[in-house]
Amino acid sequence: MKSVEDNIESLSRAIMHEASGSADQVIEDARSRADTIREQAREQAERERREILDRARQEAARIRSQKVAAAQLKARTLQLKTREQLLDKVYKTALQELPSVQQWTDYEEIARNLLREALGQMRVGEVKVRSDERTMKHFTDTYLREISSEMNIQITLGEPLPKGLGVVVEAVNGRMQYDNTLETRLQRMWNAMRSPVNHILMGEAL
After folding, report:
1. pLDDT at 108 over 90
2. Quick one: 104-201 is in which CATH superfamily?
3. Which among 48, 118, 181, 193 would be 20 to 30 A from 109, CA to CA?
């Protein structure tokens, strides 16, 4: 039979063993939790790193897109400006060349067609015809009588035009006028010609 001292020693060993075992478990649990915490921290850091990289890539793409758009807009603006300058040059050149039309061998026919067209736009019985002096020379009394009879309209010649080449027909009462000068005709035609001329200047197919 064990003595009291033996029992106390056995109990002490048992308690120490139990305590030792509990301590080992606590340490193991602590290590496990520490590993879990470190893994979670690593995963969180990796997610944050990816998010930062993604945001950086998106921002870089946005900046590149803005720069490309700005460059394209600048190039388009410059192209349009160049086209307008070319179109303006073409128009001014054509305007400067208009006086040469009166040197053409068929200008008499052209002048009379200008008058006929202008008269056709009037819906009155009596008109006054004005033109530049060179054009006026092609409106002989004989021709004016013929076209007056043909179109059933009374025609008188007015003062020469202070500027412009061609014909301006006015109603005697002053309420109607049709400008058929070469300059005005060019302006009317130019509005319709701008697009095809633009394509030609840019080397594009019509």
Report:
1. yes
2. ATP synthase, E subunit, C-terminal (3.30.2320.30)
3. 193
